[in-house]
Amino acid sequence: MQYHTPTSFEDAIEIAAQADGITRFLAGGTDVLVQLRADIVTPDTLIDIKGISGTKTITHNDDGSWRIGVAVSGAEMTEHPTLARDWPGVVEATDLIGSTQVQGRCTMVGNLCNGSPAADAVPAMVAAGMTVTVSGPDGTRELAVEDVPTGPGKTCLAKGELISAVNIPARGANGGDAYLRFIPRTEMDIAVVGAAVNLRLEGDTITEARVSLGAVAPTVLLVPQAADAIIGTTLDDAALTALAQAANAACAPIDDKRGTIKFRTHVAGVLAQRAARIAYERAQKAGK
Ligand SMILES: Cc1cc2nc3c(=O)[nH]c(=O)nc-3n(C[C@H](O)[C@H](O)[C@H](O)COP(=O)(O)OP(=O)(O)OC[C@H]3O[C@@H](n4cnc5c(N)ncnc54)[C@H](O)[C@@H]3O)c2cc1C
């Protein structure tokens, strides 16, 4: 195995583009190193991206948007003085990953590119309308987070491409987001279902919303029908019922010992309702 420590994205791209066999990028390593030690994936080329300038930086841009470096850990996001004020759902989702030890290392990008349908940060990233900057031999492109995973363990990134930044939109006025997951234990488990809601209010009426579900399909889902069910409402009982029905309808989960299809489908609706209520309350507070 060849281990590289590039100090620029250009160098990382060149190494990845020329590498043969299996290539992995090393962000926090909490998936890569576990898979390596368990003989699940032994990369021929391992490219540590933490030495690249800017990868450990959280930037609040002048227009209110955020740029999160690709090696910023969950703990660094949680400890940031103002990020969680803007995006509590994104931060709480990332904070659910693993234990204190894992939090010191794990990244949102690694969570996304590992390609697990049950990845905790990803539904919140999708609901927030986040994008990633993809850099590769042919230049740079911007992708919506929901377009990155293509199936369990798979992404749309081509050979030589990597994510060079994570972008969160400006929070704007009267907005709130939330993420909830169901696990059979109290912590350190993989989501059986995850649900994220991000919305904006005008008065008490929801004017914008995005709803995302995890662990109920081969990839994390953006569910526009669920958002449509609550836009234009004050999140009354009828809207919550319609939200749950739309979430249920979007589910195409697996049936395994951790949750049956029926259970996962039902819980997706329940969690979408609860996350919507929390996001709504947060948006109300933000408006005061
Ligand atoms: C004990 C334990 C508990 C865990 N609990 C949870 C949990 O509760 N919820 C959960 O969702 N996950 C959990 N995980 C999984 C893991 O911690 C997360 O998926 C984490 O976010 C991965 O981030 P990382 O930076 O460590 O990724 P890495 O292991 O460094 O990389 C993961 C993948 O992303 C790719 N990658 C990394 N950076 C880039 C980049 N810039 N561009 C392109 N590809 C890139 C790598 O090639 C690799 O395929 C747990 C893991 C452990 C060991």
Word description of this protein:
The chain is of the alpha+beta class. It has a domain at 175-286: CO dehydrogenase flavoprotein, C-terminal domain (Enolase-like, domain 1, 2-Layer Sandwich). It is built from eleven helices and 14 strands. A five-stranded antiparallel beta sheet has the order 4-5-10-6-7. The radius of gyration is 19 Å and the shape is globular. The mean pLDDT is 97. The structure holds flavin-adenine dinucleotide. Residues 24-32, 34, 49, 70, 96-98, 102, 105-107, 109-111, 113-114, 119-120, 157, 162-163, 188 line the site of flavin-adenine dinucleotide (FAD).
Topology:
Elements: E1 2-4, H1 9-18, E2 23-26, H2 32-37, E3 45-48, E4 58-60, E5 66-68, H3 74-79, H4 83-86, H5 88-95, H6 100-103, H7 108-113, H8 121-127, E6 131-136, E7 139-144, E8 149-151, E9 154-155, E10 162-168, E11 175-182, E12 193-202, E13 205-214, E14 221-222, H9 224-230, H10 237-250, H11 261-286
Parallel strand pairs: 1-3, 2-3
Antiparallel strand pairs: 4-5, 5-10, 6-7, 6-10, 8-9, 11-12, 12-13, 13-14
The chain binds flavin-adenine dinucleotide (FAD).
Average pLDDT across residues?
97
Q: What's the shape?
A: globular
Helix content estimate: 25-40%
CATH class of the domain at 175-286: Alpha Beta
